[in-house]
Amino acid sequence: MGVPSTAKSTVLVPEVPTSHPNIYFLLITTSKKIAFRRFKSYNRSRQGKVTPRYVSLYSKKQNRASFILEGMKIMRYPKIIQDLKKRATGYYAERVIGECEYLAHLSRVKKGVYDEIVENGAVFLWESYLSKKGIGKTECEKFEKLMAPAASVAKSYGTKFIAHAHIDMNWMWGYPETVDTTLETFRTILRMMKEYPDLTFGQSQASVYKIVEENEPEMLREIKKQIKRGKWEVTASTWVEGDKNMASGEAMTRHLLYTRAYLKKILGLSDEDFFVDFEPDTFGHSENVPEVLNQAGVKYYYHCRGLDEPYFLYRWMSPSGAEVIAYRDTEWYNMDPDPFCLMWIPEFCETYQMPFALSVFGVGDHGGGPTRRDIERILDMATWPIFPEITFGTYREFYAEAEKVRELLPLKRAESNPRFTGCYTTQSRIKAFNRMGEKRLGEAEAMQAMAMMVEGEPESAALDKEWQKVLFNQFHDILPGSGIVDTREYASGIAQQAIARANSYISQAMRRIAGEIDTSNLPDEYIGPLESRSEGGGVGQFVTGFGHTMVERGRGVNRVMHLFNPSDVMIHRVQNVKIWDWTGDEQWMMVTGPTGDETPVTVVDRGSTFGHTYTEIAFMADVPPFGYSTYSLGEREVVMKPFLTEAPKNIKREQVDFDYKICLENDLLRAEFRTTDFALISLLDKKTGAEQLSGPARLRVILEDNKGMEAWRVGKYAEIRDLHHVRLVSGDLQNPVQQNFKFTALLGERSKVIVKVTLGKDDCALNYKLNLDWLEASDGQFISQLNFVAPIKETAKAYWYAIPFGMVKRDVVDIDLPALNFVAAEGDCRPFLYSERKYGFRGNGEELALTLLRSGGNPDRFPELGDHELEFKLGITEEGDAQSLAKLREQIDRSPIYLSGTVHQGSLPLCGSLLSDLAEKKESYVVSALKPMENGEGFLLRLYDVAGGGKAELCFAMDVKEAWLCDLHEKPVEKAIVSGKTVIVPVEKGRVVSLIVKI
Predict the structure, then answer these.
(1) What's the rounded Cα separation, in Å, for the pair 412 and 319?
(2) pTM score, whole prediction
């Protein structure tokens, strides 16, 4: 009898749990003396707890011997199995080796009960292999007969195989290839199902079914037949397998809302068919995902990435207490069925008390699905006597069994992050389109709902197709930026379509409301038709760059300016407005508010474009929640203008002396800048007198050490370079409305930037606006990154990050982490960073930083070349709790939308709120959506709690007929308390609350 050759005097210790009563090891040596010595050495490492009873000679061959030290039972089968896997080939060899290894794993789970059987079988196979130089059918039959005593227990564990075709949306290819991949993959599946009637197949993502409907609708009939047979399982609860960190909470709800509505329509599915959120390749998971899924009636979660804990089937709970049963696939979604793919089954079933596991197989990423070989292998393995019980099955069957053991499963109460740190910044244009698509669609819906309240006419939501475009771009290889040029070009195109439609809806709704505002008492003047050229000025101007249209409808000196606020926060800020072809005198410019009181105003820019001139003004504005304010621009009455010697204070000061200190200051903060490079050297909280910075806060170019996967991973910082050739352009440091200065600089090897730093009258943050010509690219060794860093005076204890439907506190760590545009330090110093369209922030103990651009060269060679307009804020928080920070973020994130008006009669006052909150504790929740209902029967209000819970007392501008708490699919669940114009809604801690209101 031969023994697998090993080095002389070797100890083999298989991977066995330390709690196991038998730890196996094999000594192959030339003498008992060496065997004892080796054993004693090993025994000492085990703290002397094992004493051998005897050493017996097991075999001899070529003057070598194998000794079994029976203080702890010794088995050779681990080594034999590994050697056979390397040497023996052919169908029967793989079959019996797979069976033998499976039984070895089973015996381990059963605490060694079947060790002797496994040992005998392994020795038999080894001897057969040596004697016959292979293993054939006869040896297979003899082996399985030898293992027969363990056959029944082998079949007591099982697995359900279900085919899958992971189809990445536009990953390394463009949309035409995605369409072809989808159609041909589904064609393959349908053909296979005809040949193999027991085959089951599961497919996620509403987007792939949309592709079929648009390009080959007749295929849907075949798919529906297989769904009816129970063989095609739709696992699409979301529009795509999307990113769970950079999608907003509201976008997450729209994935669930529109996917269910769409698939019920085209496939005839029921609500019960949407039970699992299938996210196999998503790069991390926000902590509020279970709460969102619960609100949509989705009970289960499937994923592969993003779990550090050592379990695979578990309960995942949000801060609200809502939970789902989650399964992290041990073999991933592209399993290749072979004789060795099921070794984990016994341990899984025993650990989680499950009768069977789940095995998802099929060629994926670029589609494909199950191959004929895969199916034949599975059918064949199902006949092996010393193997798990194998059948084709469904996700529903698996999760139904998991539900039975819910209380036995481990509980996870946190996010699963991060995975790929570069994905929060790479391909910044895609991220900007995502953020602004979400924001504009939300604004459009809110404005539409506000117009409904004014007119009293119900109408249905009409932006579902635009939302679907935004949701498509949230696929986990599109939004994270891990695609190619075709990926971002397609994403840019459909995002622009969505934003254009949203802008149109916003404009229509504002005009509908403005038409009802009584402006008849505002100053007006007659301008002859031959003198007026302002009307229509500015059409389409400044919309590119994510602005709103500021087309002119007024004329002459006196202009009407409507400001709309489609959010739940009171807006008090400096508002910039472009007035076209204004004929007044800037020295005597005056802006009055809705009450007739004058408000501070200044001119910040002038210019001309496409036949019209514009004057950009900035003035202090107040706009109530879900409301509007009307301001009037005109001239102050003066006498004998030429004889006045002192100009009003709103005159812009164009120059700043180069030897002056550059300082921006208001009642809240004081910011001082170094004159050599305009780095911020002091940020003072004027309320507390506390300095926030320990060093210069500045822009910098970082060279990352490139270790591959450039789009996915931020490399170690290899070199940090500051701006150079810095030059002051202009400044206005004494302006009572809006102080600012502007400078230019070179950065990196060949890039240029113009930076404008601004501080408004009552702002709690400095605003940085960058016009950047970025020409940096990866050279294969280093990746260029543009970054802003603020060194913190006192070491931060932790950082608060804005996440979907909440705020999360994270420990200090020196890596990029995801945030929805806002991060604040917790500690004695409380600076924050905000950037409307950025997601990658870094908060270590000493610094708070924002990654603005990354020029990774793979898979997109030049992801960022060209012009960029970037903007961010650095400020100071008053309070450091989640509630206050969430409220501050909303206030910073929201700005009024301007509409040029005219003088006319109407029924509405110059300022009004269509929806406000009367509750004392307003800051405990945030409104994420106000929209018309999908069916047109009222409108929907959605809010979420960020910390403590409480109640919302919502006051509408008109009487409320009825109100209902509802789920994310806008189905009523429970009647809400209504009293006249007020609706009272309980808001539990961490909950997302949706409310139907009919007026």
Answers:
(1) 11
(2) 0.91
